[in-house]
Amino acid sequence: MHDRYQSPLSTRYASYEMQYIFSDDNKFITWRKLWIALAEAEKELGLNITDEQINELRSHVDAINYEVAIEREKQTRHDVMSHVYAYGEQCPKAKPMIHLGATSCYVGDNTDVLIMYNALLLIRKKLVKVIDNLKRFAENYKELPTLAYTHLQPAQLTTVGKRACLWIQDLLIDLEYLNYTINSLKLLGVKGTTGTQASFLNLFDGDHEKVKKLDDLVCEKLGFKDRYFKITGQTYPRKQDTMVLNVLASIAQSAYKFSNDLRLLQSFKEIEEPFEENQIGSSAMPYKRNPMRSERISSLSRYVIANVINPAITAATQWFERTLDDSANKRIVVAESFLALDGILNLYINITENLVVYPKIIEKRVMDELPFMATENVMMEAVKKGGDRQELHERIRLHSMEAGKRVKEMGLDNDLISRIAEDPLFKLNIEEIKAAIIPSNYIGRSKEQVEEFLEQEVNPVLNEFLEKNIKVEINV
């Protein structure tokens, strides 16, 4: 289909699994499961509903007769009643009790929560896979010194593995937030037109206990025992959508930071994202290996982060028990935020499974800068040989300025070590100076921090949440 707009989230970025969760099939099958749960609960509480009627509903739960519903909606302009009608066409015996006592939000809102719940579980599965990939990377490179930056200026040394732990730390914060959100989601339950349950109270002849029990039974059948809002208007509070999109945005923030770091590292030629044999980096410059996947993470993450404003405004502008200006906005932003984040995590998994590290380039860049960083240690060695600390400090300052000028203005190598070795004030030969600037002596506790962090913070999470055989595909 090339003659009309198609969302790139479906055609290029999101997985089949996530697209199915937000598909019409899943939505309308869930509607039917909700109608079955309602009928079962109403029967258990004494309404005149037969097993034969319920079995008839069950037998058609996943055979959505779209053509009937679409044709009916053209006449009625009401999606829920059109599907009630279509379901009734397939289930003539059960037709009189479908949607009994309910309002449209019974199926609409409860389905939205169930869809978000399943989508969050898929997000968690992929998020934990990224953590596992980064953990392996951190272990492999926990001792490899690399430049650490502040203000994007070389500052001190860290290790490649230690930097990966910074990315993991962000994701652990996200995971904690995500688990809280998953465990906090609540259904609307069975509330009626304005949340008073008046229609159900009428159905049960004024029996308040049966109406309360109906809420309990239906939500328990849907896997949300004791997890529904006790007080609502017609809908569940729209702040719940804000909560969900906030956690998606939090994950997007972490992915965005990783992708930016990797784009810089690829520019330095230290670490690259995977580049396939037949991949083309640039249409005009065939030698280039652009960080396209990382750039795509940045791009999609910006979209997910910006989308948070939509449910926030929707929640803030609902009138009294409900207005319908939530629907069209909610229908788009919730689904698209999940689809976009799914695409982000697919890329994040793909990249972290195949990161390419160039240790020699990293070492060269370290050795270009380390002589400046090591001047304190060199100075201490010279003091041990009788030097005056203040005189040495001033001499190193002058040598450093000249060496820096040579690098920046003439494009030559850093010759600070040679300058110091040739200066009799220091009483150090070239070998003694080199011994003072071994990179591994400047990484602090990086290696130990990696080992402790992975053992104490990461492994428990992986033991609890990591699922095996997670495979993702990226389309472009």
Automatic annotation (TrEMBL):
SUPFAM superfamilies per the UniProt record, alphabetical: L-aspartase-like
Keyword Lyase assigned: yes
Stored InterPro entries: AdenyloSucc_lyase_C (IPR019468), Fumarate_lyase_CS (IPR020557), Fumarate_lyase_fam (IPR000362), Fumarate_lyase_N (IPR022761), L-Aspartase-like (IPR008948), Pur_lyase (IPR004769)
EC numbers for this chain: 4.3.2.2
Gene Ontology MF: a single term: N6-(1,2-dicarboxyethyl)AMP AMP-lyase (fumarate-forming) activity
GO terms of biological process kind: 'de novo' AMP biosynthetic process; 'de novo' IMP biosynthetic process; amino acid biosynthetic process
Superkingdom of source: Bacteria
Gene Ontology cellular component list: cytosol
Pfam families: ADSL_C, Lyase_1
Keyword ATP-binding: no
Pathway assignment: Purine metabolism; IMP biosynthesis via de novo pathway; 5-amino-1-(5-phospho-D-ribosyl)imidazole-4-carboxamide from 5-amino-1-(5-phospho-D-ribosyl)imidazole-4-carboxylate: step 2/2; Purine metabolism; AMP biosynthesis via de novo pathway; AMP from IMP: step 2/2
Catalytic activity: N(6)-(1,2-dicarboxyethyl)-AMP = fumarate + AMP; (2S)-2-[5-amino-1-(5-phospho-beta-D-ribosyl)imidazole-4-carboxamido]succinate = 5-amino-1-(5-phospho-beta-D-ribosyl)imidazole-4-carboxamide + fumarate
Residue span(s) of domain Adenylosuccinate lyase C-terminal: 370-454
Keyword line: Amino-acid biosynthesis, Lyase, Purine biosynthesis
Family stated for the protein in its record: Belongs to the lyase 1 family. Adenylosuccinate lyase subfamily.
NCBIfam families named in the record: purB (TIGR00928)
Protein name stated in the entry: Adenylosuccinate lyase
Lineage, broadest ranks: Bacteria, Bacillati, Bacillota, Clostridia, Eubacteriales
